[in-house]
Design brief:
alpha/beta; Aspartate Aminotransferase, domain 1; 2 domains; 42% helix; binds 4'-deoxy-4'-aminopyridoxal-5'-phosphate
Length: 396
């Protein structure tokens, strides 16, 4: 037996859940993405997607991707730095910079690689990087890759952030990195307070708009714009894999910072560029969200309806203020069981267990899209209510 096989032969966690019949992962979808999808042979309501604007199945987005595929081919076979820059990459960067009211932007091949390639490049030895303890894994990994001193504060606890900042040298470079919308709990970063602390303690701020883009702010520009703080936030990053109906990510900032990253960020220079189809799809989705405000309005209508209904039915939904609604279960096995029962009854939701949350905070994550109807939301709420009551998680 090889060393690795020897070491991992006892990795039995998934098998245990498989034997119990509640293993929830890697279910195969055989239809187009949308509010209802075909999964493992049956139709389910999709409440587990991050496509908040609902554009992944949009005919215009698909047509734009198809056109780019035919014009440029299937891939770029190189990094942006060398042979992999297309005119549409440059166009998308220009449009994203304008959208975010920043000087310039850079596109990466995933959102994860933005955080992994930008954070360690912005801060190094002698600097400090400070994160909320619920920040996304890609921020955590970006922080780990940096030679800066790594610090964190309790989720959204501004007193704790101040306690951390107080101890640091005034002149040192200090980068605070936060999710604009927290991806599992759906609550927002307290940006106004963070900006105050930035000035008091001489820091910089980077905001991850993965879940804010297409949802918050004028024309879906994100949480920084929602608070009117886009000029106070030094670096904004986002992904194309959620509201922009594609795959890829971007960072936007001032001209000098972007020019530096363009020539040094390792996941940008040493990784192949976004495919033509992915780039064209993101451009089209970016146009649609700006041209169709009613789309975001509808997303908020169904979100507010779902929030009201879950509260009325006595679900514990935490501090969410977004289309991400956490339904707390507070037990890992039951979280998987609820996910399976929901799937069997036609509702797809995501289980969230450690390490994505603390052991006592397990939940199922119910997320809305602009293509959901109120009737579909009501069906989802009713089915989940039945299951949560049966399992003794909420009262009838
Ligand atoms: N940041 C946050 C907050 C995320 O939730 C995610 C993905 N879930 C990412 C970054 C990574 O984005 P991508 O999927 O485009 O790699």
């Amino acid at each position: 037996m090889g060393q690795l096989q020897e070491r991992y032969k006892n990795y039995r966690v998934p098998q245990q859940y498989m034997e119990e019949g509640v293993y929830p992962y890697f279910r195969e979808i055989t239809s187009k993405q949308g509010p209802e999808v075909t999964m493992e042979g049956h139709q389910v309501l999709m409440f587990g997607s991050n496509a908040y604007t609902g554009l992944t199945g949009d005919d215009r987005v698909i047509a734009a991707a198809e056109k780019a595929l035919l014009k440029y081919g299937s891939g770029c076979a190189g990094s942006r730095f060398l042979n992999g820059t297309l005119d549409i990459h440059v166009q998308l960067e220009k449009e994203l910079a304008e959208f975010e009211h920043k000087d310039a932007a850079l596109c990466f091949s995933t959102g994860f690689s933005v955080n992994a390639g930008v954070i360690p490049q912005l801060v190094g030895r002698g600097d400090y990087v400070i994160c909320d303890d619920r920040d996304h894994a890609s921020i955590v990994d970006g922080r780990r890759l940096s030679f800066a001193t790594q610090l964190h504060y309790k989720h959204n606890d501004m007193e704790d952030l101040e306690r951390v900042l107080k101890k640091l040298p005034h002149e040192a470079v200090k980068l605070i990195v936060v999710d604009g919308v927290f991806s599992m709990e759906g609550d927002l970063a307290k940006l106004p307070e963070i900006v105050e602390l930035k000035h008091k303690y001489n820091c910089s701020i980077m905001v991850d708009e993965a879940h804010g883009l297409g949802v918050f702010g004028e024309q879906g520009r994100g949480v920084c714009h929602h608070f009117g703080l886009q000029d106070e936030v030094d670096v904004i990053m986002g992904t194309f894999s959620k509201s922009l109906a594609s795959i890829g990510g971007f960072v936007a900032s001032d001209w000098d910072t972007i020019n530096y990253l363009r020539h040094t960020s390792r996941t940008y220079i040493f990784s192949a560029s976004d495919t033509p189809a992915a780039t064209a799809a993101a451009i089209e989705a970016l146009h649609i969200i700006q041209e169709e405000p009613e789309r975001i309005q509808h997303l908020w209508d169904v979100t507010n309806y779902a929030l009201k209904r879950f509260r009325e039915e006595g679900f514990e939904i935490g501090e969410t203020e977004s289309p991400i609604i956490p339904l707390y279960v507070r037990d890992s096995y039951k979280t998987f069981l609820v996910t399976k029962l929901a799937f069997d009854r036609g509702v797809f939701i995501n289980p969230v267990i450690p390490p994505a949350c603390a052991p006592q905070d397990t939940l199922v994550r119910f997320a809305l899209m602009a293509t959901h109807s109120k009737e579909q939301v009501e069906r989802g709420v009713e089915i989940l209510k039945q299951i949560f009551v049966e399992q003794g998680i909420i009262k009838d």
